[in-house]
User: What shape does this take?
Amino acid sequence: MRRSIQSQATVVAAAALLGLTACTTDSSLENPPAAENGGDAAATPAPDSGDEWFDQAEYDEQFEQRSASFEGDPEQPWLQYIDGDMTSTADLAADGPQKVCFSNASISNPWRQTGWITMNEQLKVLQDSGVISEMETRDAQDDDNTQIADIDYFIAEGGCDAFVISPNSTAALTPAVERACETGKPVVVFDRGVETDCATTFIHPIGGFAWGIDSANFLVDNLEEGDKVVALRILPGVDVLEQRWAAAEKIFEENGIEATDYFTGADPTEIKKIISDELATGDVQGVWMDAGDGAVAAIEAFEDAGADYPVMTGEDEMSYLRKWEDTGLTGLAPVYSNFQWRTPLLALEQIFAGEDVPAEWVLPQEPITEDQRAEFLADNEGMPDGHYAKFGGEDLPGYPDVWRDRVIP
Assistant: This one.
């Protein structure tokens, strides 16, 4: 598959890849590849990186933002934001349809695939309204060097009216993002952050610390001091993922919970092996995850061992929500709002109109609780297991078919 593709070609190529990668329990899709930093080393405990990524001020801020009021219509959470500094874009206003260049970390897991579908459906709306002419996309396939080259290609090509960047990792992509900013064109960074504030807007849900606080406190509230938690992490070096664990590790230590963390590469075979090995050495009362991909494999490892179900946090992926309901385990579904994939293009609509946008566009991020689970299951009935409940695309033209079929026409 070519990585450099434009608008409709992007759609077709993405549809082909979506047929090859997704959640293991999804009957309509094949297994995703393990993340590049996973693999054989996954069965050994992850190195301690919590201190490196823990930031008390940011932890405190995200703790408070969990109960903050959001500006905008709650029926359109992808446009809501926490009141704060705004970026003036009067000098970035543009007439007529504009070309967007999108540098994407990857679509190598179900969360990113769900968002990619939503983004392309939002693109169609903005093309029909004359805001965007096309979106040329380059997919870095989870590789920093590839994404750096992709961004530099866009800059050298000179045909981009705006840049959208979803970074693969934090530090490595910072210089390339800064080079995009130096062009004077709008730069929208979303999902994962970089170590610069040069972008016109940085779009993300509240953040990794908020995820870690919600998930770890849930486990603490439902476990006893001295209980064992196995923490399953995808890969190192990504700010939002590292912050999830840094917050959770702090809370576990403060409350006497014994937690051992592993990098899994989101590989279900490795996840089962890790859980099986831990159960062979003693009881495991809890499972914490920094992303829900692979949650079902973890639960199945308890079933295979004939062990009691753990208290568990997963994510709003349908496979986990369904397994959670079927088993009756004590669970929570933290959410890293998938609807954020709409926001970068809608932000560009505002920027091209010369409207102010939040400098840091913080979106709502609310876990799904047991009391809410049935509602989200009903709303997403018929969606594949790799779909995410809070995808936020119900009002877009392809709903529900393109998400249900995992194909973009």
